[in-house]
Design a protein that fits this description.
Layout: H1 7-13, H2 25-38, H3 41-62, H4 72-82, E1 85-86, E2 92-93, H5 98-106, H6 118-134, H7 144-159, H8 172-179, H9 186-200, H10 206-210, E3 217-219, E4 225-228, E5 245-248, H11 250-263, E6 272-274, E7 280-283, H12 286-299, H13 309-321, H14 326-333, H15 338-348
Antiparallel strand pairs: 1-2, 3-4, 4-5, 6-7
Helix pairs in contact: 3-6, 4-7, 8-12, 9-11, 9-13, 13-15
């Protein structure tokens, strides 16, 4: 028969009795720290920037510091301040006062005066929504009035043709152009290795590129490498799977070997900063990877329509152009939804569609 623990035993093993129905302040802080550590760095940076903007805008607009919970009307004010709309005179306007707009720019909260993009507005509202959720407070962003205003704002922007446009894909031709800008200097070898590694191993994200270490990249006897992707956007928990291993072969393997040799890297992060004179320094950040791609595109004379994500979309698009099976593409890219891959592949094959040239063919008599 089970026995109940004595009061003496309970007090001896539990110095401070907890309330099982609520989290005390220490537990709430521990939960916040655990959630923050589990999120990607880019997500944290993005949400921190969003919160800073909310605090600055709120103080300027209402004359006092932001306190939670905010009212649904506050969120509606935020949308009206930043979203363009047509007034009775058919002019595009928004409600943010010019002096507040100028103060936001001067404080560094905004890059330039004027309305925000619809994507930025939606993101800022989602930041406020998440803040209330994790604080266990009534969420004003779920108010029907807020959702209606935001939905209609998005529809109005779409009707005006102001759809969010992703960056162009770095397919084979522009990739060859930017690779041609990489000389035999230490920086040139690093950038060539980075670009080919990110593209050829399945279109790696910036965070995945900087996470590559000598401990996750194994050299094979045939001169190729195998990269073990231990954590990604679609595998936040780090669950092991057969698709975690990505090939680095051909030109990508040759470029990686050349970089590792000149940089004399034997452990730790693979892609690193290069100081003046060719000295190899600390690991690159995700922002540095973006800068490298943009710089190489500029050197190649490409239009300003590419970013680091263009390596990922470029891999998928080029695979579609070369009729690589969707399942094989997904095994390397890590996509879980075939529809996403198919969208890129259809875009890549758009101008080779036979139905687009019906009048260009001679009809047979």
């Amino acid at each position: 028969m089970a026995t109940k623990p004595s009061t003496e035993l309970a007090s001896a093993t539990t110095p401070t009795a907890l309330d099982p129905a609520r989290l005390d302040e220490a537990a709430q802080q521990a939960a916040r720290e655990l959630i923050a550590e589990g999120e990607s760095r880019n997500t944290r940076v993005s949400y921190d920037a969003g919160l800073r903007y909310w605090h600055r805008w709120y103080a300027l607009r209402f004359g006092h510091a932001l306190n939670l919970p905010v009212a649904p009307a506050t969120v509606v004010h935020f949308v009206l301040d930043h979203a363009l709309r047509r007034n009775e005179d058919d002019a595009l306007v928004h409600e943010l006062p010019p002096e507040v707009d100028a103060a936001l720019v001067q404080s560094g909260a905004k890059a330039a005066r004027g309305p925000l993009s619809m994507a930025t507005i939606v993101h800022r509202v989602s930041v406020m929504s998440k803040l209330h959720e994790i604080s266990r407070l009534p969420n004003p962003c779920k108010d029907p009035g807020v959702r209606e205003v935001l939905a209609k704002a998005r529809r109005a922007h779409a009707k005006r043709g102001e759809l969010s446009r992703g960056k162009d894909a770095l397919t084979r031709e522009p990739m060859e152009a930017i690779l041609a800008t990489c000389n035999e200097s230490v920086i040139g070898k690093r950038d060539r290795a980075l670009l080919l590694f990110a593209f050829s191993s399945g279109g790696r994200r910036r965070s995945e590129v900087v996470a590559a270490t000598m401990e996750t990249v194994r050299a094979n006897l045939d001169g190729t490498y195998t990269f073990e992707l231990r954590h990604s956007k679609t595998n936040q928990a780090g669950n092991r799977g057969t698709d975690d291993f990505k090939p680095v072969s051909g030109r990508a393997a040759q470029a990686l070997a050349a970089w590792l040799e000149v940089a004399k890297i034997t452990e730790g992060p693979i892609f690193r900063h290069v100081r003046r004179g060719g000295a190899v320094a600390g690991p690159l950040t995700a922002r540095a990877v973006r800068s490298i791609v943009i710089k190489r595109c500029a050197l190649a004379g490409l239009p300003k329509r590419f970013s680091a994500h263009s390596l990922r979309s470029g891999f998928i698009t080029e695979a579609g152009r070369q009729n690589i099976p969707t399942a094989d593409v997904m095994a390397l890219s890590g996509h879980r939804d075939p529809a996403t891959v198919a969208r890129y592949q259809r875009a890549g094959a758009l101008h080779t569609h036979m139905a687009a040239t019906l009048l260009d063919t001679q009809s047979e008599q």
